[in-house]
Design brief:
about 400 residues, alpha+beta, Rossmann fold, Dna Ligase, domain 1, D-amino Acid Aminotransferase, Chain A, domain 1, 3 domains, 4-stranded parallel sheet, 18 strands, about 25% strand, binds adenosine-5'-triphosphate, binds magnesium ion
Length: about 400
């Protein structure tokens, strides 16, 4: 489907209010819906969960499985353009939708992001232009390939090729015996073994690309993970050596362009200790959607990552966003809803919101569970030092470890 401009607030050829659809009803879908509605679009969400965060705030909520033909037909009937909020949406479902409606990002780009083997091949191809390689790796799909793994990849991390997230589907291995046991444990599914790298830092870059090839970006985000889940993102000029930051932005744009990508794309990088002052940049993985590390854009930039997703799929101009305030984002996991003795509690939002420059975003999830993403706190300030200081105060109030 070729896309035409979907002007905010207008009606479609079918006489309906212009409607943007999203596959998936999680928090990313919810924040996308908020941005779309702020611009006057109607929204439709497809998610089987009646209590899904996005479904509850959307004009329409289609409650079927992602591959359900009737559900997909309803979504197409309702919507003038469709996006996705999670990468494990079945690629065939996106292809079905794309036959009748503009879909951004496209099924082919999502299929690459769903599969580490394809993703690594893309990164290797793009490294010729960007100079940024993935970690040394081997693909393991057969016992022969397992046996042929070079010793240089150990110690390493065995990662399933599909369906991994937040550190799930990964096993750290030191010896060949451990590697074989780990592949047994993962059920002999296709995997990649990556060399364990000495990380100095992790960062990500979010770009948005339009169908005509225009590409804009947000500044480089410095990310701290705890237990395999994003915990803190810091965004201000001094967060990374400038030369590395520039290289990361350029690499993300090469990847988006190689994929003919339309929409918001996040690319994650490692900074690895290679003996140099800055360290070396390594590309880790990508997410074909807005990303947790980009949530600060809601309060610290002239446009949020969700606004840009709306613009990209509606064929509206993508203008380069500007970060107007140094920012820190704290992820709010379900753990905060439990006291030390295991009893449930409400975090002290009143004390957090008494701190200047704090912006609370909760996703409307009814049940807190440990490790579950319940919301995030954006902290903005006039200077990086102030943003950090306020964020550390918020950590103390909430019982989060300092960073
Ligand atoms: P996400 O939720 O970001 O999709 P994921 O489960 O797909 O995560 P990765 O991002 O590949 O997994 O890895 C999770 C974390 O494990 C990384 O953020 C990093 O801290 C660590 N890690 C992954 N690969 C390596 C490596 N090759 N060397 C060192 N550390 C690594
Ligand atoms: Mg990751």
């Amino acid at each position: 489907m070729t896309s035409k401009t979907l002007l905010p607030g207008s009606t479609s050829d079918r006489g309906q209010q212009l409607t943007l659809g999203v596959m998936g009803g999680g928090q990313l879908g919810r924040m996308f819906v908020h941005s779309a509605q702020a611009m006057g679009y109607f929204t439709a969400v497809l998610d089987p969960d009646p209590a899904s965060p996005a479904g509850r705030v959307s004009h329409y909520h289609i409650q079927t499985a992602y591959g359900d033909e009737q559900g997909l037909a309803q979504l197409m009937q309702r919507c003038d353009a469709i996006t996705t909020e999670f990468e494990n949406v079945p690629a065939p479902a996106l292809m079905t939708l794309a036959a009748h409606r503009p879909v951004a990002p496209g099924a082919n780009a999502v299929a690459v992001a769903q599969d580490r083997v394809k993703e690594k091949a893309l990164f290797v191809a793009c490294a010729a232009d960007s100079g940024v390689n993935p970690a040394p790796y081997a693909t393991i799909t057969t016992p022969e390939l397992l046996a042929a793994v070079p010793a240089s990849l150990l110690p390493g991390i065995l990662k399933t090729s599909t369906l991994g997230y937040d550190g799930k589907g990964q096993v750290r291995v030191t010896t060949r015996d451990e590697l074989a046991a780990a592949w047994d444990q993962l059920g002999h599914v296709p995997c990649v073994l990556e060399q364990m790298l000495p990380l100095v830092a992790e960062c990500s870059v979010i770009v948005a690309r339009s169908a005509d090839g225009a590409c804009v970006h947000f500044p480089v985000q410095r990310n701290l993970h705890r237990d395999g889940i994003l915990s803190v993102t810091e965004i201000y000029e001094e967060n990374m050596p400038p030369a590395l930051a520039e290289k990361a932005v350029a690499a993300a744009k090469f990847i988006a362009s190689d994929l003919h990508y339309v929409g918001v794309l996040c690319v994650e990088f490692f900074v690895v200790d290679d003996g140099s002052a800055d360290g070396a940049l390594v590309v880790n993985e990508m997410a074909p959607r807005p990303h947790n590390s980009g949530h600060y854009t809601q309060n610290a930039c002239t446009l949020s990552q969700f606004d840009l997703q709306v613009r990209a799929m509606a064929g509206l101009p993508l203008v380069q966003p500007r970060q107007h305030s140094p920012a820190v984002m704290l992820n709010l996991l379900g753990d905060l809803w439990f006291a030390a003795d295991g009893s449930e509690r409400s975090p002290a939002w009143d004390a957090v919101l008494a701190l200047p420059g704090t912006h609370l975003h909760l996703y409307g999830k009814l049940q807190a569970r440990r490790g579950r993403k319940m919301g995030h706190l954006n902290i903005t300030a006039a200077t990086a030092a102030e943003a950090r200081a306020t964020a550390l105060q918020a950590c103390e109030v909430l019982g989060l470890p300092p960073f």
